[in-house]
């Protein structure tokens, strides 16, 4: 079937036929039932040194904005740092993670994007399926790695165990034509509110992820998750996310797509392990995609990201605007005082100019008198 093993209606039958050790069986079973597993060991030698180097190397460029080689920096988030940082790439391509994902999905994993964070995102609850999807569906997952210890105070991840079994919802289910939106994030709050109603209706229980440096969370594409509030504003929460697709699929962004209107935002997927662009496959057949279409879709997605960043900055701008409103009377008083000083300065300058003219007149008169005195003496 065109379904991941863990989502197959025949999971138990297939699972019983797999030759796996006891620990791996436990992980696979949990992932199928809960939609996530926590990994203590990434299989990377000297993982503490690796995570420390990532923090050290990336810290100087957090807070900037723009493009670095093929990566994008959005203040405290760096997208695709794997393109210039080998330690980020090492975590994204961890053989232990890759091998486990092969078992869970029964296809070749394709790491295609990394995100490195300095602080907790405080991101609202969402499903990755609205941002990254595939045909066939559900062949996508995320792996979140703690680059420092995470507790209740520095903005831990939260997730809802078992929520991955819910149907996959997109904007069309909410009566929104996503591909026609000029600003997709204008309608995104509707999606977020819908998920909150869904959580309450189903009585889903939220769990926060408290882990040590080097531990990882693997979650299914449709698992509801987000970032909890940062209670201690002085704390960082260095972390890395890698998103994975799987082989023999087509890859697209549902937030910007309406397949039945023939408007599909296909995604150019570059395999981090090989550096090569991955083919789109539909039922074993390669689908040709015009490179110009990729470029158009890439620019549209960048615009979407900038709009998302703008939405994050808007509350800050509003705060400054409120402060400016409070300060406005004081500014008007200062401007009034400055105007008074300008008038006084002008008066002094005028008086000075008059005094200078008078001095010149006196000097001229003195000169005339000296000349006259000199002539009378003769």
Automatic annotation (TrEMBL):
Keyword Oxidoreductase: yes
Protein name: Phytanoyl-CoA dioxygenase
Gene Ontology MF term list: 2-oxoglutarate-dependent dioxygenase activity; iron ion binding
Organism listed in the record: Okeania hirsuta
A Pfam family: PhyH
Coiled-coil regions listed: 331-372
InterPro entries: Phytyl_CoA_dOase-like
Record keywords: Coiled coil, Dioxygenase, Oxidoreductase
SUPFAM superfamilies registered for this protein in UniProt: Clavaminate synthase-like
